[in-house]
Amino acid sequence: MKKIIRNLGVHFELYIGAVFLSVTTLIVIMNVFTRYFLRFTFTWAEEIAVGCFVWTIFLGLANAYKTGGLIGVELLTNLVPEKGRPVIVFITSLIVSTISGTMFLFSFKYVMGSTKITAALELSYKYIYSSMVFSFALITLYSLYFLEQSFRKMVTGADIKFVVEDNLESDIVEEEQTTMSTNKESD
């Protein structure tokens, strides 16, 4: 049970994104069905589908960065020899943290200044736009983590993985092994 809870924490962007994508898919299917077979549409369906899809995109972006799934960063890192990778990761993490931190601030100001509301539901667009704030905050945190890890590798030469997910999952495995060995010793 503890592993499941920890795993949810490691992959929370994917789980939340999956819920939003599922809602988007169900609403679109429902709206297509009602439009073509029942000859009416729900006025609110498109607004919810678009909002959920935007959240899915931004959560996916944060998770892709966290797991090393962005092609540009991965390609650049793989072009450099093993000894130079911490330097490249440090530089790219510094650039990404600066840009994503700036985007976090701009998106936060944009969301706070937004007065636009949706036509059918009359909800504030702040709920949709806040996906940018959340995503750039996560990317900034992850890039600062990578920055710290790459600096540590440059200074100490320790073997460090540059993917947040791998480090968290290895912590889970180590904790389980420790728990299992403690349980065996007590038996």
Please give the domain count: 1
The residue-averaged pLDDT reads 85
Q: What is the tally of helical segments?
A: 7
Residue share in β-strands: under 5%
Helix content: over 70%
Backbone structural class: mainly alpha
Rg (C-alpha, Å): 21 Å
What is the topological layout?
Elements: H1 2-10, H2 12-37, H3 45-66, H4 71-79, H5 85-113, H6 126-156, H7 164-186
Q: How would you sum up this structure, described in words?
A:
There is one protein chain. The chain has 187 residues and is mostly helical. Helix 1 packs antiparallel against helix 7, helix 2 runs antiparallel to helix 3 and helix 5 runs antiparallel to helix 6 (126-156). The two termini are 21 Å apart. The chain contains seven helices and no strands. The chain has one domain. The mean pLDDT is 85. The chain has helices spanning 2-10, 12-37, 45-66, 71-79, 85-113, 126-156, 164-186. It comes from Oceanispirochaeta crateris.
In summary, what is this structure?
By secondary structure, this protein is mainly alpha-helical.
Short descriptors:
single chain; 187 residues; mainly alpha; 7 helices; 0% strand
